[in-house]
Amino acid sequence: MEVLLSLVVGALVAAAIYLMLSRDLLRFLFGLILISNAANLSIFVSGRLISGAPPLIEKGQDFPVGEVANALPQALVLTAIVIGFGLFAFALVLTLRAYRSLGTLDTDEMRVAEPKDPS
Amino acid sequence: MSWLLSLPLFIPFVAGVVSFLLKDGPGGRWASVLGSAAMLVASGALMTTVLREGVVAGQMGGWPAPFGISLVADYLSAVMVVITAITALAVSIYAMADVEARIARLGYHALFQILIAGVAGAFLTGDLFNLYVWFEVMLIASFGLLVMGGSKEQIDGGVKYVALNLVSTILFLTGIGLMYGMTGTLNMADLALIVPTLENQGLVTVVAMMFMVAFGVKAAVFPLFFWLPAAYHTPSFSTSAVFAGLLTKVGVYALIRMFTLVFVGDISFTHEVLLWVACFTMVTGVLGAAAQNDFRKILSFHIVSQIGYMILGLALMTPLAIVGAVFYLVHHIIVKANLFLVAGVASKIAGSTELKRIGGLYATAPLLAVLFLVPAFSLAGFPPLSGFWAKFILVKATLEDGRGFVAFIALAVGALTIFSMTKIWAEAFWSPHPDNQEPKLSTLSKGERRALLMPIAGLAVLTCIIGLFPEPFVQFAEGSAAQLLDSSAYIEAVLGVSE
């Protein structure tokens, strides 16, 4: 299972980097969203995968009995997803705004803040 | 002790909320100023505790380390929080006159306080994932501040700033995941104990490089700095000043923390990379500045160049070099924020930040000229100002380490810094105004003058104090370097206590 997920992470990163190399801002952003999911998955795999054993503690005991799933990476991934959601929502709105006020999404054309010929 | 550690985080959050509720009136501005002042008091209290008792640690929510989130203040963290509060106070006073009512109504002052909370949190946390969370708090607030106003330049600069910082964030997150997979912990003190015992040290170096690139983007080192000069000259002057003072320094702080505490197993490789990064950062930054003709663009490139000096101190890893890095960090925040504040006043009375379109400030606004000269000379490293001691310590450390060539680069970059400062001086202050205007401070209202010039004067006085009486500051930096190079006190404070 770990191997399969690691391969998925690798494929996601490859696809993401292909998209991020594009000059088109929207494609770049899609790449960024893909690679952030790859990062989340890699955290999940780092915690080792154990299926079918929820980390529940029996009544009257202080710790779970036997091998159970690691709850910490799930908490980390959940936090990262929420934060990522906020950031990407902002980035998407910024992209829309950039298209409306600059008239292009080609990053090579975006030279307003750094004009080629500073005069 | 937890409450004292969480106070510098709690205060700006509360100030941010209050400021947001009062954003339509003058109350929003005042909430921001009062919040910054209260934070200064709290961080001062934290500083005295750290000076008295050494490293202070607290466990949030009562969970013992390494299971819960620890907040830790050693000398470096404490001084960074104090300097954050000083910068926040100066800039929030300045912002009262600088930020238009239209932008204040969008919640400018509230976002500003959230930014400060994020910065302070990054300095105080002792947990790697928590550091990521504080980075994000800081990042989302900075996105808002950067594009507030929505001019074409801001959107353009904002796109580049957002894109490159998000890449760095994801790299950081992946590094955290791999670190957790190797060690099973995210507490920095715990990591410092476990990492040297790992079998696969090669993998540790790989993860170390991921962190170096992630923090390197935040710190704007060569070749990862391109977002900085693309964005820093576009927002309001208060935003520029607080970004210039604090944001890149969080990246530098994170580098110093991780590469003195956790990643010290392969110094001959990692710190050698840092050394070359430092040299290239210094040189490219200062050359980039020499090619610019805009007040703020020149200053932006100088941030990059100055970051190189701090990384140089970290890369050498000798006690004296770390002293230099810590001293430089503190000196640089004050000076650089101040220069951006001066640029704001110059632009307000002369009409532009482009050097060709302004002039004559020395003749008509001599007070501003003096207030520019103090931080400018300090940045270039003239005695007896703070920058002289910072550069002196670093160059001495470089020579003691037997790296004459690197010392030569550091000195040459200092000389080129004087060139840029002279250019600003000659064009903005000395040469007559191209439209024969007479830019005067009296064109500003009395309230504006007070709000704009008081913080500049205050920071300039601070620069002079550090320059004229460097002894206690150097001693403090020495204490800080000792703590950084021998992490046993840090580890004991975090893992030894359970509240």
Structure explained in plain terms:
The complex is a heterodimer of chains A (119) and B (499). Helices cover 61% and strands 0% of the residues of chain A. Chain A has three helices and no strands. Chain A has helices at residues 2-20, 25-46, 72-102. Chain A is elongated. The mean pLDDT of chain A is 87. By secondary structure, chain B is mostly helical. Chain B is built from 21 helices and two strands. The longest helix of chain B has 32 residues, at 152-183. The termini of chain B are close together. The interface between A and B is large, with 38 and 39 residues.
Summarize the structure in short.
With 119 residues, chain A is mainly alpha-helical. Chain A is 61% helix and 0% strand. Chain A has a single domain (2-51, 68-102), classed as Helix Hairpins (Orthogonal Bundle), CATH 1.10.287.3510.
Range of strand content of chain B:
under 5%
Which structural class should the secondary elements of chain B be placed in?
A: mainly alpha
Write down the overall mean pLDDT of chain B.
89
Largest inter-chain interface?
Answer: A-B, 38 and 39 residues
User: Please, what is the oligomeric state?
Assistant: heterodimer
The tally of helices of chain B reads: 21
**Could you tell me the radius of gyration of chain A in angstroms?**
21 Å
- Give the strand line-up of the largest sheet of chain B: 1-2
**Biggest pleated-sheet summary of chain B:** 2 strands, antiparallel
For the largest beta-sheet of chain A, the strand count, sense and barrel status come to: none
What is the chain-wise order of helices and strands of chain B? HHEEHHHHHHHHHHHHHHHHHHH
Q: Which regions of chain A are unreliable across 5 or more consecutive residues at pLDDT < 50? A: none
